[in-house]
Amino acid sequence: MIGYRDYPCLGARSVVRRDRATLRVYDELDAPVTAPLLPADLRQFASDVDPGAGFASFIAIFCGPQIHDEGHFERLLCSQLGRLHAGDQDPWNDTVSADPDDKHFAFSVASTPHFIAGLHPMASRDARRTTAPTLVFNLHEQFEALRATGQFVRMRDHPRTGPTPEGDRQPHGRRPR
Fold first, then answer.
1. Which structural domain, as residue segments, surrounds residue 99?
2. 105-146, pLDDT tens digit by residue?
C-alpha cells in the first residue's frame, strides 16, 4: 500500500523507496516478554541510523493479539508504551517533554525521542490499516531536521490533505481524544 504514488505519508513512502526501514517481529503487543526486547532493538536502530542518509523508521510488527476495535488497540498501545518506559534503564531525553499533552512531547526510549505511529487491522483509516498490530518508531530528530529546513509543514500537512488510494483523508500525528 505504501508503494502507491498517492499514499498520504511522504515519510513512509521515502523510507520504503530508499530501503531505510528496520523491521522486527515480536510476540503479542503488550505482552510482558516483548517490553524488554524493544529498548535494545531501538537503541541499536538509533545508533545505526545515518541521519544524513534520509528518513529511517523502526517497524515493530506484533504477532497478536487480535485487535477488536480502535479503543482496544489504543489501550494495548498505551500499556505497551508504559511497559517499555518502565523497563527502560535510560533517562527520558531532556530535549522533549514527557507530558503527552505538551506540544513538545515525544516518547523517549533508550534516551532517544521518537514519534510513534500505530497501525492495526481495525484502523478506521485505510492508510493505518495493517494485517497485524504494528508500531512505527521514527526518530524525533528527523522531524526536527525537517523543521530546520522548512520542510516539516509540507510533510505534516500532506497526509492531512492527501487522499489515500481509497480516497479517504489521513490525519497524522494527532492524539486520539
1. 10-161
2. 999 999 999 989 998 999 888 777 888 999 999 898 876 666
